Amino acid sequence: MRGQHRMTRRSFVKFVGAAASGLALGGRVPVAQGQAKRTVVFWPEANTPAAQKGWDEITAAFGAATPSIEIKRVFQPEMTNIIKVALASDSGPDVFQRDIPPSYHQPLVDAGLLRALDDEYKSRPNLQKVFPWARKRGIISGRTWGVPHEVEFIPVFFNKSVFARLGLTELPTKSYDEFLNLCKAIKAAGVTPLGLGGRSRTQPGHLYSELMMLTLGKDGFEEILYGSGRWDQPAVIEAADRIKQLIDLGYLAKDALAQDLAAAQAGFAAGRFAMWTTGTWQLIGLERSRADNPAFDYDYFFLPPINTALKAPQIAGGIGGGFSISAKAKDLEASTIWIDFLMGPAAQKIWNEVFFQAAPTPFDPAKANLPPVPRKAMTLIARGQELGYNVSVVIPSNVVEVYWNGLQGIMSGQLTPKDWAGKLQVEWEKAKADGRVVKP
Amino acid sequence: MIRRRHLGALLFIVPAAAIYGTFVLSPFVQTVWLSFHKWDGASPVRVWIGLGNYVAAVRDEIFWRALSHNLVFIGMNLLLPTSLGLLLAALVAQVQRGRTVYRFGLFLPYVLSLAIVGIIWGRIYDPNIGIINQVMRALGLDVLTRPWLGDANAALVAVNLAGVWHAFPFAMVIYLAGLQGIDTSLYDAARIDGANGVQTFRHVTVPSLRNVTTLLLSGAFISALTAFTLVWTMTGGGPYYASEVISTYIYKRAFEDIHVGYGAALSVCLALFALTTTGLFVWLRERRE
To answer: Fewest CB within 10 angstroms: A59, A101, B97, B165, which?
Structure first.
């Protein structure tokens, strides 16, 4: 062993002593200098490389603006499944990101796990600027339980390359029949007009939301949510009938229920079908497809009116992701400062440019470096116009279950729209009896 | 003296009993307790509703539909992986050269996690680029192509076949081990009596593997009753409950629909059904012996 380094017992004791002293001294420096940072534990829900990049930029900007507060980020892709237990067991975050509409938040509010933010909306500069219609979507039982950050809507995306190849230049604007004629022309050219990732249960729900806004409208849906409107009324059934019509006419891909979301996006980008209904949350994926495949380009339009008595435009969408504070947040002030920063102009620029999302506060998309379609979407959002609804995010979970599965049932011929609407009404009444419906 | 000996034995039992009690018995008892409550999983208040959740389960048509799908799973799981495993084991046992290669190659699907199997078979069943539809189109059998996982009539069987592909290697390996334990003098006697290969297989091999078969069938039975991963990754139980099984339904009701009490009641029903039927099955097998 000669010539090799061996640690004797004495040298080991010296090493441990020195290391311990060093650690102790090092650990005391911030305390001695009064620089101990306040900490906010924050759980964002997406951990894609693009989302990580965005969060890196946002936390760096926050760190530069507010050096006394440190953000400890823990990604939680399974947020919906674990947040309830985490908050109840006091092992959760101070602040977390997740959809804030009542269908998600009601159980947390009922369990006393969230902090109402009404006072913070009055006192924080960026929270004061949140569009009123957006703030309203986070209200349960008269109090505001979350900060909406992701405004989203559901248009019909179309593959520009396919449209150009088929010589299609006119988009449908005036009536739903124009849309059907467009589908007919695409089908006649041998291309499937409309695709969907129906295996991901949410996707048929997005198409339905678009159609329901055109048959029942935003106000009619609010009458169900807040008033005495019923799910088994003709306009609700008609929207589902329209989905069945698209299948019967061969306009909606017959394999739509066998495709998941990723396959639907790939099929759309590859031109397997000409149009795809999904939300603007998919812009980040579509832009990635565009970067990967130079032959692919896309744009979007809104489905034209069905019920012409409704005030146009009736756009399905609303609020998706948002931020909430735990009732047991260790440092409420620091948590509020962090959320306020997330709604401010510095963060908004990153939301726009990296996430292709927009927070519902006034902003100028012209100042952001954006590709054409995200710019178009941001411009619409920046107007502050109230949107309609993506149905599934504002109804209780037992109704959502029947809503999603039932649409699959209609598409696969196992259920009629009328029977489905009847089941929705039954679940709605159960939810009402349980106190699980929206309480504005 | 006897007491001291008992005390010593108890001391040895305590660690295992503590672990079993904490991680098996206690959650089970808690689940039973929860099943008598209405609870959303977070609220500090749990409302006692007695047998309300069980009454709701009896009236729940989706529950019965899911249970019927489990029965299809059981039927296919009892029949296909074990018979395929037995057949392949008998064939591989005959191979003189390269037996290890065959054994390794055939065992490969079993080492994959079920989630991976779900993804692989999801691609195989893809209506556009999946190999099944592509081969059918190449053979001019377009009429037989279908959106397998999106077709209400095909989804359940399609998921199950992926499970069979994953399960048969285990049966094969266990049967191979069982084959090595069969007394060779039985084969000699059969040969002297003039039995051909099929007769030897039927009257010597199969009866000699009775205990192995019981073990495999019990395992297959329980795994079919508790099937979750493949269904979840391939169809999520859809379209419109066409491939829903009890476990996926429990998950949805307990954690997506946040009816934890109801989910607990369904879990208790499933556990009781599994215990009763498995016990009955093993008893019947042993009684025949």
So the answer is: B97
**Of A302, A322, A320, nearest to A380 (Cα)?**
A302
Fold of B35-288: MetI-like fold (1.10.3720)
pTM of the entire predicted model: 0.82
**pLDDT given at position A21:** 41
Predicted confidence at residue A35, as pLDDT, reads: 61
Rounded to a whole number of angstroms, the distance from the CA of A219 to the nearest CA of chain B is 27
Cβ–Cβ gap B42/A88 under 8 Å: yes
Domain boundaries for CATH 3.40.190.10 within chain A? 38-151+318-382, 155-314+395-433
Interface test with A, best of B124, B126, B128 (most A CBs within 10 A): B128
DSSP structural state of residue A90: T
Q: What DSSP element (H or E) covers B254?
A: none
Tokens representing residue B36 in the block: 């008598």
Q: Which CATH class is domain A38-151+318-382?
A: alpha beta
Cα(A158)–Cα(A299) distance, integer angstroms: 6
Is A199 in contact with B126 (Cβ distance < 8 A)? no
B226: nearest Cα among B203, B204, B249, B208: B249
CB contact under 8 A, A112 and B44: yes
Average pLDDT over residues A327-334: 94
In the numeric block, the tokens 């969230």 are attached to A114
B 74-133 → A contacts, CB under 8 A: 122, 125-128
Q: What is the ipTM of this complex?
A: 0.74
Report pLDDT digits (tens) over A184-196. Answer: 999 999 999 999 9
**Which CATH code, of 3.20.190.10, 3.40.50.300, 3.10.560.10, 3.40.190.10, is assigned to A155-314+395-433?**
3.40.190.10
* Total residue count of chain A as it appears in this document: 440
What distance in Å separates residue B74's CA from the closest CA in chain A? 24
B239 contact A CB<8A: yes
Name the DSSP letter for residue A114: B
C-alpha distances (whole Å) from B86 to each of A183, B169, B175, B195, B210 are 53, 10, 6, 20, 12
Contact A435, A106 (CB under 8 A): no
Kindly state the DSSP code that residue B49 receives in the 8-state scheme. Answer: -
Question: Would you call A258 an interface residue with chain B, using a CB distance cutoff of 8 Å?
Answer: yes
Other Cβ atoms within 10 Å of A244 Cβ, number? 15
Tell me the average pLDDT across A202-228: 94
The helices-and-strands tally (H runs, E runs) of chain B is 15, 2
DSSP B182: S
Q: Where are the domains of chain B?
A: 1-32, 35-288
Contact A87/B at CB under 8 A: yes
| DSSP symbols for A358-408 | --SS---GGGS---HHHHHHHHHHHTTPPP---GGGGS-HHHHHHHHHHHH
Tens of pLDDT, residues A147-186: 998 999 999 999 999 999 999 999 998 999 999 999 999 9
Distances (CA, A) of B9 to A295, B19, B20: 75, 17, 17
Alpha-carbon gap: B92 to the closest alpha carbon of chain A (Å): 37
Residue A439 is predicted with a pLDDT of 61
The residue assigned the tokens 């934890």 is B260
Q: Would you list the DSSP string of B211-253?
A: HHHHHHHHHHHHHHHT--HHHHHHTTT-STTTT--HHHHHHII
Average pLDDT over residues A289-296: 92
Phi, psi of B266 (to 5 degrees): -65, -40
Report the C-alpha gap between B249 and B242 in whole angstroms: 12
pLDDT of residue B197: 85
